Amino acid sequence: MDAIDYVREQLVEKRQWSDFKPGDNVVVSYRIVEGDKQRIQDFRGDVIQMSGHGANRTFTVRKMSSGVGVERIFPLNSVHIDGIKVLKRGKVRRAKLFYLRELVGKKAKIKERTQLRN
Amino acid sequence: MNGIIGRKIGMTSIFNEFGEYVACTVVEAGPNVVSQIKSEDVDGYSAFQLAYDAAKSKNTSKALKGHLEKAGTGPKRTIREFRDFNLDKSLGDEVRVEEVFAEGDKVSAIGVTKGKGFQGVVKRHGFGGVGQATHGQHNRQRHPGSIGAGSDPSKVFKGMRMAGRTGGNRVKVKNLRIVKILPEKNLLLIKGALPGHKGAFVMIEKK
Lengths: 118, 207
Description:
By secondary structure, chain A is mostly beta strands.
């Protein structure tokens, strides 16, 4: 495992984002390369899980797109991510919010955390 | 064909120059020692014999120790031959990973696949299993079905695919690509999967 950790350390550049957690509402600006053109697409939704650790950490963002749930997994250190903006801090009690998949409407809403825990 | 003996470490993924997330196998490749040079005149073909991975003296036969002593090196765990090796090396020289490969090279990997034990035809040969799970059928979902006709030919043809020992075969995976070389730790990153378990020896050959 040491060699693998070494490879990750050497070859995956760790990127710094503003701190976010599962339950937060975020906008991920993702750079899309089409031929020689580049554009930035925003993906807005709730973070429902963070998984992996170190260089291999990923997070999943879920949003409702015209009534259909859409989930996207981003590697935290992806070079294509232009920025991650936290819009709302969510008040949740677990680290993986998969229960949201079964819920619709008002029940699928995450309450906002007004007081930031230290 | 130039090549090197390595040891499979495991898999990880890295970002390439296009920002794509590429799954790679990490191979600890060498440094190998040239333990014998076979030539057209003496052996009938030209090849380099490489040795890799220091072994304990007590676990190595006297014959092998004597053979490696000729190259001026200690006991080694594995010895492999590479035909038509065209690096300028002499007996006892070290072969390092950065001398053999460059990033972006096409390579093949030879290794022994993971042993799976005695397996049925569905896993071993990719059979679909028999029929339905409903309509009264209850106990033969993963069976091979018929293995031939009856009184004519009155036998089962040779080579009929049946259940048996699976895995543990020597295989060669072609058209792999080297993503990265880390010479300071003798590491090689190859796109995709390689045969064998972690710690297994693999021969990496340049195409």
